[in-house]
C-alpha cells in the first residue's frame, strides 16, 4: 500500500499511545493520592 498511509497510521498510533500513557500516569497519580 502507499507509504504515506503507513506513516500516517504510525503517527496516529503514536498519538494514541502517548494519550494512553498520559491517562495511565494520571490514574497512577490519582491512585497514589487516594492510597496516601
Give the helices and strands, then pairings.
Elements: H1 3-35
Describe the fold and architecture.
The protein has one helix at 3-35. It is mainly α and 36 residues long. 92% of the residues lie in helices and 0% in strands. It has one domain (1-36). The protein contains one helix and no strands.
Structural class: mainly alpha
Largest sheet: none
Q: Spell the H/E element sequence.
A: H
Tally of individual helices: 1
**Beta-strand content:** under 5%
Total DSSP E strands: 0
- Ends distance: 52 Å
Principal-axes geometry comes out as: rod-shaped
Q: Segments where pLDDT lies below 50 for 5+ residues? A: none
The chain-level mean pLDDT equals: 85
The helical percent reads: over 70%
Rg on CA atoms, Å: 16 Å
Our count of domains comes out at 1
The gist of it:
By secondary structure, this protein is mostly helical.
Could you name the key traits of this structure?
about 90% helix; rod-shaped; about 0% strand; about 35 residues
